[in-house]
Amino acid sequence: MTWSASGYDTGVKLPSPRGPLSETVVAALSGDPDGRTIPFAAADPYGEDLTIALYTMYELHYGGFDGVHPAWEWDPALLKLRAQTEIAFLAALRSDVDGGDDLEEALDALLVEHVPGSGVSHHLRDNGTWDQMREYFAHRSVYHHKEADPHAWVIPRLRGQAKAALVAVEFDEFGGGRADRMHSRLYADLLQGAGMSPDYLHYLDDVPAPAIAIVNMMSLFGLHRSLRGALVGHFAAAEITTAPSAQRIAQALERLHADPRCVEFFTEHIEADAVHEQIMRRDVIGSLLEQEPELRADVVFGVQATELLEARLADHLLSSWAEGESSLRTRLRWLVSQNG
What we know:
The chain is mostly helical. It has helices at 20-29, 48-59, 76-95, 103-110, 120-126, 130-144, 149-152, 160-173, 183-193, 209-223, 228-255, 260-291, 296-322, 332-339. Helix 2 (48-59) crosses helix 3 and helix 9 (183-193) packs antiparallel against helix 12 (260-291). Mean pLDDT is 92; it is low at 1-7.
């Protein structure tokens, strides 16, 4: 079989399997598409196996993997397996949120600052260690390396002011036309400043399911037109909550005397996302629901699903650190990177 050049040098290796389902996916992608059915293995919708399997299949729509034939991206057998996996994940999300169509309540709740704060950014600001901060960077790298990419899929599914406003937000996320100011580039700079690898998805094998599931949710919402309202809800939730969290992380980094490149990533988000919050609420969501009011419950679902998965990640991080344990799956490569 003749291989397209785009199937080779991506710079990213297939991840290590974490169970029967992901083992099936990785084994399939290690060979050529042949039309045979790829069996689905039931798994915990939030567990390591299903989460890395779904992330691996989604990554074919992003940068892909070394040695993986590009035809796998649209292979019918793999798409069927992905659909079965998505159904399990989406069903879990829907069953674990309150639902409803009270959008104002859902968005206003994001602005409530609980005192005293007990979230990850509060811990890092007040008591976090440099090792914990670097672990946090590793967790977030599975998204920030592709920051704003999942949201771009919703652009052709919007119309009028909703589309124009969302593109304005995306323009900022992609650096306003400057490659060195793209947020994904700023995160790579942050990793270098922290003495970590800036390479795309370098820490994927180290990061456990809670952080990966958040990115899966974005890909799921972005790739399905029927979930465009949920994607907008997620994007709005992310923009609304980022500025205060970024402020606390920046304060933590200043306390820890971190490299300025680490601080800059978060100060950039303090300024940008405070503006984006208003654009998302007024111009994107407001315009979308004027055109398609039936999507209100979907927007609420996107907000709630985001909060659900962010809470799961926070619980994992804080419980691991409270027990004096690493929040990452593996330590060997992590220790090597620290000593390097």
